[in-house]
Amino acid sequence: MSTDIGGLGVWSYIDNLSAAEAAVFARRLESWGYSALWVPEAVGRDPFAILAWLAAHTSTLVFATGIANIYARDPMTMKGIRKTLAEMAPGRFVMGLGVSHSHLVNKVRGHDYSARPVATMRAYLEGMERALYMGPEPAAEAPIVLAALRQNMLQLAAEKTRGAHPYFVPPEHTARARELLGPEAWLCPEQMILLETDASKARAVARKHMAVYVGLPNYQNNLREYGFDDRDFADGGSDRLVDAIVAWGNETAIRARIEAHRSAGANHVCIQPFRPDGEMGADLRVLELLAPTAN
Q1: Residues with Cβ < 8 Å from 213, sequence gap 6 or more?
Q2: Cα(151)–Cα(162) distance, integer angstroms
Q3: Which helix (H) or strand (E) holds 55?
Q4: Which terminal CB of the chain, N or C, has fewer other CB atoms within 10 Å?
């Protein structure tokens, strides 16, 4: 059974929810017609374990990692996970992989991030291909997508995987990524959204959520290619950067940003809905408002 990623998914931190609450959240997304739920890996739950739990408590929703850190598991383990979840949830699992960031790998995980990211990812994917696996074979392999931002990683994604899952990017990046990936690869950008029309309130909430990303070299280096510079990365992000990364405003403004990614070449957009109070977790109001079943 092949995987249909669909057109509109949700990217959400769910470690603020109990396992039972997360299952309720997933079922709600499914009932609203969203095609996929993307979850990150950082310093909380094991993403594959919680996705297996959620798959068992839903029937059609696709689950994806956005992303799983390759430094957390060796290629043989990752191959086993890929096949296990493909067997357990046929056609409903996408393995998003990434090299993460040096501070997480070096300081938090205690590994060595000195190797070149693209070469590291290529070697890892080839290690997965060669790795021994003696468990039950799934009816179909689960797709792999890469957390790819710049030219070489995007080209590797097109060469070795089903496509790319760019994060913290404007639609201009989506257009460039489509050029590099070619017409057949999946392109699944994440888009932060906020249902708030007051500019000062919206930007304050946006900066709170952007704080962890705006200072990271991986994202800065990518954004420099689209005209941003040191001034945009200072003090939590310039208004120009905030507005480029977070689609805030009314329903019309948010829908326009989603459509901008689609027009630029995305075949799947995963929206990350910030709460107006700035707390962690998804804003259910905007998810219900944008629900595919409501359109």
Answers
A1: 168, 219
A2: 16
A3: helix 47-56
A4: C
- Asked whether the beta carbons of 207 and 242 are under 8 A apart, the reply is yes
Q: Which sign does the torsion angle of CA 287, 289, 292, 294 carry?
A: positive
In this prediction, residues 12-38 reach a mean pLDDT of 98
Q: What is the pLDDT of residue 106?
A: 47
Identify the DSSP state of 263.
H
Contact assessment for residue 185 and residue 267, using Cβ atoms and an 8 Å cutoff: no
Residue 19: phi, psi to the nearest 5?
A: -60, -40
Kindly tell me if the per-residue pLDDT of 112 is higher than 80. no
Greatest Cα pair distance, the chain, in angstroms, is 56
User: Going by C-beta distance under 8 Å and a sequence separation of 6 or more, which residues neighbour residue 184?
Assistant: none
Instruction: Collect all residues with Cβ–Cβ distance below 8 Å to 273 and sequence separation of at least 6.
Output: 10, 12, 193, 194, 195, 282, 283, 286, 287
Is 72 within 8 Å of 36 (Cβ atoms)?
no
Of the pLDDT bands very low, low, confident and very high (cuts 50, 70, 90), residue 294 is: confident
Q: What is the pTM of this model?
A: 0.96
Instruction: Assess whether pLDDT exceeds 60 at residue 42.
Output: yes
Q: CA-to-CA distance for 106 and 144, rounded, in angstroms?
A: 25
Give me the mean pLDDT over the 166-185 stretch: 98
Calpha distance 287→80 (Å, rounded): 34
Gyration radius of the chain over CA positions = 18
Listing DSSP states for 162-214 in one string gives SEE---S--HHHHHHHHHHH-SSSEE--EEEEEE---HHHHHHHHHHHHHHHH
pLDDT of 38 reads 98
